[in-house]
Backbone:
């Protein structure tokens, strides 16, 4: 049985269709990524699962329960780390946790022990008495995660978990998400960061204006794109890049500012030397980078638009 089962889900805000006939599942022990640009409907999906929003069509099932008719059961099964972490900034981490426990946990004494364990696990124990407003972005996210895990839910939703978190904090959060997955929890992560979807998620659903345009493992999605990208940084301009590279098996030539040329090639490893030689006949080659297809390329191919716009 899937942990989350969604079929033909739709939700409109007046004339905007934020979620459009969406179907997917999240399995126990899996991280499913919802990857899409701002405004593609990610938060709306999260709020339809956690029962904060009502749907216009379709079904949502969380381990056998419908958030719309069975909100209490779904709340008990779900941990949610929202996009806006909505912590009490003037309270300490521990008081935020106790406040949450008082609202949601029946056994407050047991909850207090678990609070200590979770603060320890999230490396917040030393600062647990300080007001949350003095925390970094990463610490706030970890506190929001600790709070979401208080009742040990089997399903956890993360809405853009690393937004505003620095690189080191991002890696810490990813490790926590992976260990939850390895504990068998079903995890839904929304993101507009291609790299996050690629390295964190077992499967990725690419969302475009509320619609699913692809759903597969990151490797399978990238395998749809034929060819590599070669990026040449030159010291000066090329007279006729298309004419120069076209005969060498380059499918697409794209000129970027500051004499950067992006080439789409079938098998970059084979023709790299030829490309560099051709370029250096006209301008000094400062650097050469070869890139396998990324989820950005997949998004561009499927939607005609770049992911980050
Ligand atoms: P994301 O989380 O991917 O950025 P959202 O789910 O927040 O996307 O929004 C999806 C679309 O729905 C956007 O076009 C957004 O402007 C619109 N939208 C979201 N919330 C509301 C609302 N409360 N009222 C009207 N439109 C909304
Ligand atoms: Mg959002």
Residues:
């Amino acid at each position: 049985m899937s942990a989350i089962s969604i079929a033909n889900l739709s939700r409109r805000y007046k004339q905007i269709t934020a979620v459009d006939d969406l179907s997917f599942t999240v399995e126990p022990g899996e991280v499913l990524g919802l990857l899409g640009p701002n405004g593609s409907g990610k938060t709306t999906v999260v709020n339809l699962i956690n029962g904060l929003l009502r749907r216009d069509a379709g079904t949502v099932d969380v381990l056998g329960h419908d958030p719309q008719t069975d909100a209490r059961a779904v709340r008990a099964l779900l941990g949610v780390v929202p996009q806006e972490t909505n912590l009490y900034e003037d309270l300490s981490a521990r008081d935020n946790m106790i406040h949450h426990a008082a609202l949601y946990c029946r056994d407050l004494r047991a909850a207090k022990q678990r609070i200590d364990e979770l603060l320890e696990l999230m490396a917040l124990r030393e600062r647990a008495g300080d007001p949350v407003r003095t925390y970094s972005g990463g610490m706030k996210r970890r506190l929001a995660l600790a709070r979401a895990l208080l009742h040990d839910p089997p399903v956890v939703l993360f809405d853009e978990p690393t937004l505003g978190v620095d690189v080191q904090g991002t890696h810490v959060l990813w490790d926590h998400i992976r260990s939850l997955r390895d504990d068998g929890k079903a995890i839904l992560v929304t993101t507009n960061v291609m790299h996050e979807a690629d390295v964190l998620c077992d499967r990725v659903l690419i969302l475009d204006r509320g619609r699913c345009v692809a759903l597969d493992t990151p490797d399978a999605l990238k395998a749809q794109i034929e060819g590599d990208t070669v990026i040449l940084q030159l010291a000066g301009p090329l007279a006729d890049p298309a004419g120069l590279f076209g005969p060498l098996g380059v499918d697409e030539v794209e000129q970027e500012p500051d004499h950067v040329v992006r080439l789409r090639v079938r098998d970059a490893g084979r023709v790299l030397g030829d490309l560099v030689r051709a370029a250096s006949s006209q301008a000094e080659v400062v650097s050469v980078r070869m890139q396998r297809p990324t989820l950005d390329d997949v998004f561009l191919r499927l939607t005609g638009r770049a992911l980050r716009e």
Notes: Residues 4-222 form a domain with the Rossmann fold fold (CATH 3.40.50.300). The pocket of adenosine-5'-diphosphate (ligand 1) is lined by residues 13, 16, 18, 36, 38-44 (CB under 6 Å). The chain has eleven helices and 13 strands.
